[in-house]
Amino acid sequence: MRENKKITIVLGVIGADVHAVGNRILHHAFSEAGFNVVNIGVMASQEEFINAAIETNADVIVVSSLYGHGEIDCRGLKEKTVEAGLTDVRLYVGGNLVVGKQDWKETEKKFKNMGFDRVYPPGTMPQEVIDDLIEDFNLS
Amino acid sequence: MRENKKITIVLGVIGADVHAVGNRILHHAFSEAGFNVVNIGVMASQEEFINAAIETNADVIVVSSLYGHGEIDCRGLKEKTVEAGLTDVRLYVGGNLVVGKQDWKETEKKFKNMGFDRVYPPGTMPQEVIDDLIEDFNLS
Amino acid sequence: MEVELAKGKIDWDYFNQLRSEVLQAWPTGQEVNLEEAAAYHKELSPQRRFPELLKAAEREGRTLAQPRAGVALLQEHIELLQYLEKEGEADCLPTTIDSYTRQNRYNEAQKGIDESRKEGRSMLNGFPAVNHGVAACREVIEAVDVPVQVRHGTPDARLLAEITLAGGFTSFEGGGISYNIPYAKAVPLERSLAHWQYVDRLVGYYQDQGITINRELFGPLTGTLVPPCISHSIGIIEALLAAQQGVKSITLGYGQCGSLLQDVAAVITLKELAAEYLKKFGYTDVELSTVFHQWMGGFPQDESRAFGVIGWGAASAALAKANKVIVKTSHEAMGVPTKEANAAGIKATKQVLNMLKDQSLPESEELRVEKDIICKEVRVILDRVIDFGEGNLALGTVRAFKAGVLDVPFAPSKFNYGKLLPARDNNGAVRLLDFGNLPFSREIIEFHQEKIAERGREEGRQPSFQMVIDDIYAIGKGMLVGRPR
Amino acid sequence: MEVELAKGKIDWDYFNQLRSEVLQAWPTGQEVNLEEAAAYHKELSPQRRFPELLKAAEREGRTLAQPRAGVALLQEHIELLQYLEKEGEADCLPTTIDSYTRQNRYNEAQKGIDESRKEGRSMLNGFPAVNHGVAACREVIEAVDVPVQVRHGTPDARLLAEITLAGGFTSFEGGGISYNIPYAKAVPLERSLAHWQYVDRLVGYYQDQGITINRELFGPLTGTLVPPCISHSIGIIEALLAAQQGVKSITLGYGQCGSLLQDVAAVITLKELAAEYLKKFGYTDVELSTVFHQWMGGFPQDESRAFGVIGWGAASAALAKANKVIVKTSHEAMGVPTKEANAAGIKATKQVLNMLKDQSLPESEELRVEKDIICKEVRVILDRVIDFGEGNLALGTVRAFKAGVLDVPFAPSKFNYGKLLPARDNNGAVRLLDFGNLPFSREIIEFHQEKIAERGREEGRQPSFQMVIDDIYAIGKGMLVGRPR
Ligand code: B12
Ligand code: B12
């Protein structure tokens, strides 16, 4: 197992979203890959993400949104991290971000504009995020 | 049963086409509706249609083509009827007239241009043709 | 007011005390007038009534097809339902409620409505019925010719029930367990059970006025490898709790697992066991029906592959002779479906249902084994829950969850014991790898262990959490059993 | 040269006399050199060989998915196959031959090729392999990584077989009955049988060089309510005739009827009965496999409904454990499918096949009854055909057709007796309403009559031709049994 322990991930499912299965698998996959995972679970508010990141001195916040309200739920998160002084914390988001099957390019742009560093389409496998984490944090 | 006996229909499946089921059902439906049906069956050449029409003094030729080669097989049929002096005989055609699922308007135009009086899309039920026959021959 | 778990039918005066508080939670609560609502229902044409439709389906031996559907705005929602009725040929319709309403966050739902108006597309994943109110609900009911049901996932659905039932809906999905454990994180069971006793009591009120409202229990739970014994036990408890409040038309739900034998056995035993326990509790006049959910877990992204899953779900439902099937769409893995995709799912389903209407899976040794094990498992769980309750089934349920005698795989609720690990056996049936605290006999445990061991031998690996993960992904990747690569 | 029905393996010298004539029918015939072709086959990688793939599928208990596909021009045909391999994930590929080539009208096929070039779209409903010649066939074979089969409907396929087998195809569909009676109007059976003895003898030649070519028999016949006893009897006769010429790899075909029990019973008995008769005739080293055709009759126009039919076909094939399934598409009722629609059909099918890979229909009393009746029917027909032949099975076949002992519903051939009338029973199984001259025992006849009478009672009408018509339209209209409105 790689020495990824130094990287701390705050993981959670934002808003009123209760989709728990993907969260459990991401937790498992990130841990197996050697990361330090702080899982705040489903139905997590923006504040819970921020607080967990502050408390654990996190490197990256991985937000899941499956149920379609991601657009409403994620607005302002970036601004809140900045306010909280978490300017170096990276923001990833993935799942089924919007309501319905929409043009992916549009959705990606929307979330990038909201301040997310990486935005993932439905069905992204954990290994892809792990590879990106390794790249983003020069771990390889 | 209506008095449609006076109208004689030459019915057949043109070209190298062996689709026999629809032909059998059309035969049954036209007969039940009281028409005089001369069924030359499947794999009928243009000549067979013309000859049958001459021999039986037919009022209408109903051409089926299911297998996709209808476009090639039907070309020149109108001209041959004219040559044979069958200028009053109406020409109907139906089935799966072209290869593949194509724009119906286009196909209809193509067959109208070839000289067919009525052109029917896939899945046309016998009753529709019967209604048209009644209209075209003022039988109602 | 403190929640209290009723032992029997809630006293009407007490109910009214609770009621005045419930109706204050959002302004539209004031629109509800029970007598007027009962009168409205009496005028409703029978073809728009769910209980009648279900009885007809049972009589004719056919399986009804029902989609999921709901958007933020009233007019759009009506157009959606009309489309699914006309183009999709749906036998009955839903009104799927959005996730904010499900969490009683009516303010956020309002924001969603407003933004949807602005953006010109639905920003909500369902229809916020509470915000729209009673009159709007009646517009929905009257806009279509088939019955419409409220489908959601709401731990506290009291206001939603008040408004939608007064609004003319004739079926209401959910239950104190099935709409809490998979749908919430921190709602205590005693609370959701009490809130659902309220809903059932409300339905019981209508029943007392001669108006039967169908209650459907949400069988699939988390939709992810839930073994039949778990969903059956929970469904039967919810049926008993509903019957206690005077409910007379109950639809028991089950989410397809994917193994034909297990799924057929499950549908058959679900009705049999429910009737058995209802009788045990003295309820002999409850109309029972079954609903089969096409695969509720992760779907393939590819639309044609999704059609394959849908077709198999339809076939299993028909062969099991379920009374109703809830239809998925080819967009499932991507997002809430367009109306066209939704209609396509219904039509593919109906084609299969109709082709299989006169067929069923014949009795066989293998089917008998599956039915047997389900019955044994359910009886041992239910009898323990009943014992725990000491005469109060709702209380027994709370205690059972605490003890892990009831446990739902992958549920988000912190009031779930959370120790079960399901995995498929070598033929695709869902078994248990970890039993948590289920009160299973040695015989049952060995049955599961041997089944999973058989798969392990076939795959040359020890059963483990990796096997579970492989199974979770399997259907999405085009298999049933998550074989190692 | 006069046709002659061989009693046993055709003498090699006589074969060569026939051959020189066959190869002259079109210029490309001169491209065939048997020794060189055998050498080419020896170099062919095993993954491109049909017999090997079928054996692997049988070993692994999986069902292969194969589309139909063919267009007029070589490059387009190759692109189509590559697309179906890559995007469609087909397990094996076809080259469907156009209808002019099937009737040996190579001039018209050439016209079709030329016009297709001009119009920029395929004006032919298949690939005219004879006109394209040996080298073009090899380009097709080498362009894809899975085996490719010739699929057609050709009463006289001698030149087509010479060219495509020399061209590296490793499987060849058809037979002297199944590619005549449903596909021709005026070709005498003695002629098509003799011509197919030639094809089988050619395959026997390759076999003698150590190169196994798979021969598939066209089970569905007219695709329209053909009862299993008819297609089984014909398939087994064709298998025996092929074995006589030295064929060692035979795939028996069956077209889905739509009743799960009947279809599973049919696939199981097809292999069993074929093995039984091959053994009776002394052929014990023939590799047998089965292919299941998704519903071959009229399809629904609606594409989602078509997906329903496809899904049910895939499920039935998997539960019957057929070795291969031939896939339909959502365009079926409209026309030759686009490559996208074709790929979609394969993917929907594969999803179901994979999900059911580890499941099968368990033995039951009902299944046993279906298997029993098929076996009885087939044995009584075959034994009569064999008797008729007085030691020459091909001759017995000709006589049997003349006498109506063999009879195919709705066949266009004037050499078909044409008296059978099939209809569905109350559960959807295909039975016989009119037996024509089938040599059935009282017991068998009563079985059918009682089954159809049961349906008549249910529908409150006398069984008649109207019932048959209703059944022909039924699946297209979204049912299985053509119930009156
Ligand atoms: C199971 C399921 C449920 C279960 C959930 C049980 C539970 N508590 O977990 C139940 C039945 C309760 C449910 C409820 C609802 N659901 Co739901 N559900 C699903 C379903 C079928 C599978 C989800 C799943 O478990 N997949 C398996 C896991 C392993 O995959 P995953 O969740 O996608 O997660 C993986 C990836 O997305 C990725 N990932 C996730 N997050 C992130 C983040 C990053 C940064 C990255 C890189 C990757 C990543 O990695 C994960 C692991 O591989 C999906 C559709 C589908 N995918 O097929 C719909 C789906 C997510 N549900 C949906 C909806 C709308 C709902 C409901 C509103 C119900 C409704 N309409 O009736 C409610 C919402 C309740 C709520 N408040 O959240 C929609 C969302 C629509 C949209 N976005 O447009 C979906 C897409 C279905 C659909 N097409 O309509 N659902
Ligand atoms: C059964 C069938 C066969 C059977 C036919 C058995 C037989 N001898 O009859 C078999 C398996 C042998 C077969 C062979 C072939 N078939 Co075929 N077959 C079908 C199928 C599935 C059903 C046809 C049928 O019987 N329908 C039931 C009857 C009642 O309906 P019908 O034939 O459509 O006829 C009705 C209407 O069309 C209408 N009608 C017909 N003619 C007329 C005329 C007029 C004027 C009017 C108003 C109405 C009308 O009334 C009829 C009665 O209701 C169709 C697809 C489909 N429709 O689902 C393909 C189909 C017709 N076949 C097709 C093809 C290509 C072939 C083959 C080349 C095979 C191949 N690709 O492998 C060969 C051709 C052989 C030949 N030389 O003709 C294609 C044609 C493609 C196209 N036009 O683009 C189709 C559409 C399938 C497809 N999508 O690829 N086939």
Keywords:
heterotetramer, A: 140 residues, alpha/beta, Rossmann fold, five-stranded parallel β-sheet, 5 strands, 40% helix, C: 485 residues, TIM Barrel, Glutamate mutase, C-terminal domain, eight-stranded parallel β-sheet, 17 helices, 10 strands, 51% helix, binds cobalamin
Characterise this structure.
- The complex is a heterotetramer, with two copies of chain A (140 residues) and two copies of chain C (485 residues).
- Chain A has six helices and five strands.
- The longest helix of chain A is centred in the N-terminal third of the chain and has 12 residues, at 21-32.
- Chain A has a single domain (28-127), classed as Cobalamin-binding domain (Rossmann fold, 3-Layer(aba) Sandwich), CATH 3.40.50.280.
- Chain A is an alpha/beta fold.
- Helices cover 51% and strands 9% of the residues of chain C.
- Chain C is built from 17 helices and ten strands.
- Chain C has helices at 12-22, 34-43, 50-60, 74-86, 99-102, 106-119, 129-143, 158-166, 189-208, 228-244, 260-280, 303-320, 339-356, 365-389, 393-403, 442-459, 465-474, and strands at 64-66, 93-96, 148-151, 171-173, 214-216, 249-255, 287-293, 324-326, 421-424, 430-434.
- In chain C, helix 9 (189-208) crosses helix 10.
- The model of chain C has no long low-confidence stretch (mean pLDDT 97).
- Chains in contact: A-C, B-D, C-D.
- Chain A binds chain C through residues 15-18, 20-21, 24-25, 28, 41-43, 67-69, 71-72, 96, 98-102, 122-123, and chain C through 99-100, 102-103, 105, 108, 111-112, 115, 121-125, 153, 182-186, 222, 224, 297-298, 301, 331, 333-338, 341, 410-412, 465, 469, 472, 476.
